[in-house]
Structures are given as C-alpha cells and as structure tokens.
Design goal:
This protein is α/β, with parallel strands linked by helices and 181 residues long. It contains 7 helices and 6 strands, in the order H-E-E-E-H-H-E-H-H-E-H-E-H. The protein has helices at 2-13, 67-74, 76-83, 100-105, 109-123, 144-154, 171-180, and strands at 20-26, 37-42, 52-57, 88-93, 135-140, 158-164. It has a 6-stranded mixed beta sheet, with helices on both faces. The longest helix has 15 residues, at 109-123. The relative contact order is 0.20.
Length: 181
C-alpha cells in the first residue's frame, strides 16, 4: 500500500515519461550526516538543463534493516520511472530507527540548509546548472515529524508536500504551510 501511495506522489509531483536510474548512493559528509543518501535521476537527465528535485524521507527502518533493503523494498527508481517524470532527481536520505537521523539533523533552518548545501555540492558532479531553489518533499510514516520541522523553517523553498500514512501529529505545522501557500 505504501509503495502505491509513493508512486502516486511521484506521478502528481512531476508529469511526462521516462525511465530512472541510480546516480549515487553513499555518505557525503559523515561529520554532518552519517547515513547514506541515494540520488535517482530520470534516464533523460541532461546535466546541462535545469531539473526538478524531490526529497523523500522514508519512514520507520526496522532494526538490522539496511538502507539497501529500504531501497529494494520501495524501488524508488521504479517509482520515479512509473511517475512519468522527466529531468528530475529524487533524493532519498537514509535514517535509522524511527527516523532518528532525520529528527536529530533537520531541527532548524540552518541544519536543513546545510544539508541542502551538502547535496548541492554533490550534484555539481552530475549537473552543470544551479541546484534548484525550490523542490517538492514527501514522506512516509514517522518522517512526518521531520517534514513538519522542515516546513516550519524552510517552507519558502518547498513547492509541494505529500505525506503517506504520515499524519500522526504536527498537523498545525502542515496547516500553516497550506495557508501560506
């Protein structure tokens, strides 16, 4: 069910037709964010053209479950392909447990902006154009807490939000975002 909802999210966020592949998976800056981050891009990705960005925060990661298990279970490359997106990068950072790394890292504007700067630096390897100023964000399950904090501090950069089985609280922060946009 969650996979179907995430596919629906991607289809809503960007439209057209293409396939997708993994650009990068690894740790970028262990001093700031020690978990792996996966970058998927549509196969039509042109490094010289502007691109759309979607940041997806996965939900609860079971004990002993590896990030590769999460990527295999949710098949983000397949979802990006099924969405019909073109010229799009899907960023999926990993987090342990109940989104512990998200909750510890994305606590304020400075922290999330530093995360985006780190991502932008890595994207320079894959793209000659500037990192997108705005982006879409999605999340599943326990990621709602981190997304609520991100919306509180960085909502001027976020154009779309999609939550899947992820409204267990912080509804006032989501309501404020909706009213501002």
């Amino acid at each position: 069910m969650a996979k179907t909802l995430v596919v629906a999210l991607l289809a809503l966020l960007v439209s057209h037709s293409a396939s997708a592949s993994l650009l990068f998976k690894g740790v970028i800056n262990p001093r700031f964010y020690s978990e792996e981050i996966a970058f998927f891009a549509t196969d039509d990705f042109n490094s010289h053209e502007p691109y759309s960005l979607i940041v997806h925060l996965h939900g609860f990661r079971r004990q002993l479950e590896k990030f590769d298990d999460v990527l295999a279970e949710f098949q983000f490359d397949g979802m990006l392909k099924a969405s019909g997106s073109r010229q799009t990068v899907l960023l999926v950072p990993s987090s342990r447990g109940k989104c512990d790394d998200f909750n510890a890292t994305f606590t304020g504007k400075a922290e999330f902006e530093l995360f985006l700067t780190m991502i932008a630096q890595k994207m320079k390897i894959f793209s000659t154009v500037n990192f997108p100023r705005s982006f879409a964000i999605s999340g599943h399950s326990g990621a709602y807490k981190s997304i609520a904090e991100i919306l509180t501090h960085s909502s001027d950069r976020i154009t779309k939000v999609a939550l899947f089985d992820a409204t267990y609280g912080s509804t006032e922060k989501f309501s404020q975002f909706i009213l501002r946009h």
